[in-house]
Write a structure and sequence with these properties.
The protein is of the alpha+beta class and 680 residues long. It folds into four domains: 3-188 and 208-282, Rossmann fold (3-Layer(aba) Sandwich); 301-381, Thrombin, subunit H (Beta Barrel), CATH 2.40.10; 398-476, no CATH class; 483-606 and 641-666, Immunoglobulin-like, CATH 2.60.40. It contains eleven helices and 34 strands. The chain is globular, with a radius of gyration of 26 Å. It starts with a helix and ends in a 14-residue tail after the last strand. This is Peptidase C14 caspase domain-containing protein. Belongs to the peptidase C14B family. Residues 10-262 form the Peptidase C14 caspase domain. InterPro entries: Metacaspase (IPR050452), Pept_C14_caspase (IPR011600).
Length: 680
């Protein structure tokens, strides 16, 4: 490795394609996109190696060649050469940024980038090929950020363009191009069947590699078109590139995780360009050309105002468990809310819809002049319709326990003496002077660790466990009881795969054996031919709540288009293998329970505010009170995906439905050992 290469820590490949050989398919803002990104990188980073490949329209209208020289054209050969050069020259720990601005197309359900090709107008650089190159970089220890400012799915498009749109970054795919350029790398199989061991939740777009070393920011969701827009100064840009540059300039002195960067982009799109929903895949803890975030971050529910509207909105509604009069602290989006140096604006929920809510001041006064867009909200007090009743049995200082429980405004629990009352959970002290938690049937919950009463912080730790259990139960019991927001137009089936056949379950609570394979099939049957958004969460035996898609870098949800004349576009299937956790086996339990909670919504949203981590199954793993980590999650662990493309005041656009599938998994006497820990 040369001395120059060893000094470089950041690498960039920038691809911008305005010219595709014919004026009618050419674009106008792509080259400008990457030029602005290049300027930003050169100013911001001292040790960066940048290769820029562009295709600008020639001055001669009859020419079929871009204005640049052939070595700078964004062809297949030049792009692959640029990717290989980075992979070869970069060293482990370096950072890579790849930006593509141009047309996208769709082949067999997956993305393809439309690279310039002098003979065929464009070359479809398939998502699988791109993933192959990404994997090589990740395997070399590189941290990769990939920005795709193009149509992400392509062929399914909405009617009508927004008045400010200059061009659509989508191009029809011609099968003749495939004949000219046969596939080199194989695909990963049918996109309709996604396979997973449930505890690992490997459910993601089929062309993506493992997410640990990369993040992908895409300009729009499946079945949407990416647009070019005209900015206030008259320049034409891709919408994602434009808002990304705004965000980077605002955060140039701060290393923010990709998750926060994505959230910021989402709110900007929502307010200024709502016809697109940008997506984020991969490892969201990585930062833009910086070190990854260590440990779980504190994330918030977004707060925003629509243009020309003085109302202030919370991007969560009844589907997320929001209740009228819930109280939140609101901070500017780029502030460090956890530092305690900034006084928040205290607000409360005034009205709740399906996926969003209205916010007002505590005294019901308007707050528009106190809140900027975007802002972020942290839950302070939950007005749950039903608190989980926790009993205190045979412990010292009973009044101290009750007072400590009442101070936890985030919890759903209400602690009191259990004399003559039924409780959801109870705390007892056993003969070894250990605190144990008892369920509603009077049985010790074996998956929870006993806590020595003499352990420092024991009371706080046990209350944290109870708060965790209460939040778990609340998630389990979420139902849509409002006919006005009830979503229909879909079907869900749960099956067990036996050999080459399927056994369709006719009920929502089922028993399966260890290592059983089950398949969840969801179909969009909407008569309005509108897409639906599918979210699948696992409520696991270690009291964790995980998003099956997001946990593995596959994004927040799966979008299902209407099942019309497009082959199987409206259906998706997910295979899961059920296993009893090894930690259960080690303590003599041969069975466990998982709940697959399915949300289906009419608009893109996130239920991340409801996720929970695993609870340590042994006291030796529980050295610190759970309160600290749990508070970070329970304080509205959400992201900026709860957005609608239309006016937030229209309740008809905020429909949702949910369904629980309870799966009891039991080992046979001859079963082999299960996975290391947990179902997810």
């Amino acid at each position: 490795m040369s001395e120059l290469a060893s000094a470089i820590t950041h690498w960039a490949l920038l691809i911008g394609i305005n010219f595709y050989g014919r004026p009618e398919i050419s674009l106008r803002g792509c080259v400008r996109d990457v030029e602005h990104i290049e300027q930003y990188l050169r100013i911001s980073l001292p040790c960066v190696e940048i290769q820029t490949l562009t295709a600008t329209a020639p001055s001669d209208p009859n020419s079929s060649r871009p204005a640049e020289g052939p070595d700078s054209w964004p062809t297949r050969e030049n792009v692959i050469c640029g990717l290989r050069k980075i992979t070869t020259a970069a060293k482990s720990g370096d950072f890579v940024y790849i930006h593509y601005s141009g047309h996208g197309c769709k082949i067999e359900g997956d993305l393809a980038l439309a690279l310039f090709d002098e003979k065929q107008e464009f070359y479809p650089f398939r998502g699988q090929h791109l993933a192959h190159q990404l994997k090589k970089m990740v395997d070399e220890g590189l941290s990769v950020t990939l920005v795709l400012d193009c149509c992400f799915s392509g062929s399914v498009v909405r009617s009508g363009d927004p008045p400010d749109a200059v061009a659509v970054r989508y191009i029809d795919h011609d099968s003749a191009v495939d004949a000219a350029y046969p596939v080199v790398l194989g695909t990963t199989g049918s996109r309709q069947v996604r396979s997973s061991v449930l505890r690992d939740a490997h459910v993601k777009p089929s062309w993506l590699v493992e997410p640990s070393g990369y993040t992908i920011l895409a300009a729009c969701g499946p079945h949407e078109r990416a647009m070019e827009l005209r900015s206030a100064n008259g320049e034409i840009h891709g919408a994602l590139s434009y808002f990304l540059m705004q965000a980077l300039r605002l955060t140039s002195e701060t290393e923010i995780p990709h998750e926060d960067l994505y959230h910021y982009l989402r709110i900007r799109f929502l307010v200024s360009w709502p016809q697109q929903n940008p997506m984020c895949y991969g490892n969201k803890d990585l930062t833009f050309f910086g070190m990854p975030r260590l440990g779980p971050g504190i994330t918030f529910i977004p707060v925003f105002m629509m243009q020309g509207n003085s109302s202030v909105y919370l991007a969560a509604g009844s589907a997320h468990g929001v209740c009228k009069d819930d109280e939140y602290d609101v901070f500017p989006w780029l502030s460090e809310a956890s530092s305690g140096n900034l006084a928040p604006v205290r607000v409360k929920v005034d009205a709740v819809r399906g996926l969003t809510s209205d916010l007002v001041g505590i005294d019901a006064a308007p707050i528009a002049n106190q809140v900027e867009t975007p802002s972020k909200a942290r839950l302070c007090t939950r007005r749950a319709p039903r608190k989980v009743l926790v009993g205190i049995q045979g412990v010292d200082n009973e009044l101290q326990w009750i007072a400590a429980a009442e101070q936890r405004n985030l919890s759903y629990l209400f602690a009191q003496s259990t004399q003559g009352q039924d409780c959801d959970f109870s705390v007892t002290c056993n003969e070894l002077s250990e605190y144990e938690i008892i369920d509603e049937w009077g049985q010790k919950i074996s998956s929870l660790p006993p806590i020595p009463a003499s352990q420092e912080g024991a009371l706080d730790y046990v209350l944290g466990l109870l708060e965790h259990l209460a939040a778990f139960r609340n998630m389990k019991e979420i139902r849509n009881r409002d006919a006005g927001t009830q979503l229909d137009g879909y079907t869900i089936q749960l099956c067990e795969i036996v050999g080459k056949t399927e056994k369709v379950f006719d009920k929502d609570e089922v028993d399966v054996g260890d290592k059983a394979r089950v398949r969840l099939r969801v179909t969009n049957t909407s008569k309005e031919k509108k897409p639906i958004y599918l979210h699948i969460y696992n409520l696991g035996p270690s009291w964790q709540i995980d998003n099956l898609f997001d946990a593995s870098g596959g994004g927040l949800c799966v979008v299902l288009s209407a099942n019309d004349d497009v082959k199987h576009e409206g259906e998706d299937q997910f295979e899961l293998e059920m296993s009893v956790p090894q930690s259960f086996i080690d303590r003599g339990d041969d069975q466990c329970e998982d709940i697959l909670k399915v949300f289906i919504t009419s608009q893109l949203t996130s239920f991340a505010c409801l996720t929970l981590p695993k609870i340590a199954v042994s006291n030796k793993d529980a050295k610190e009170p759970i309160r600290g980590d749990y508070d970070q999650l329970s304080r509205a662990r959400s992201d900026l995906a709860a957005f609608l493309r239309s006016d937030r005041r229209d309740i008809q656009d905020e429909k949702w439905a949910t369904r629980n599938f309870t799966i009891h998994t039991k080992r046979s006497p001859t079963s082999v050992a299960g996975p290391a820990d947990g179902m997810l």
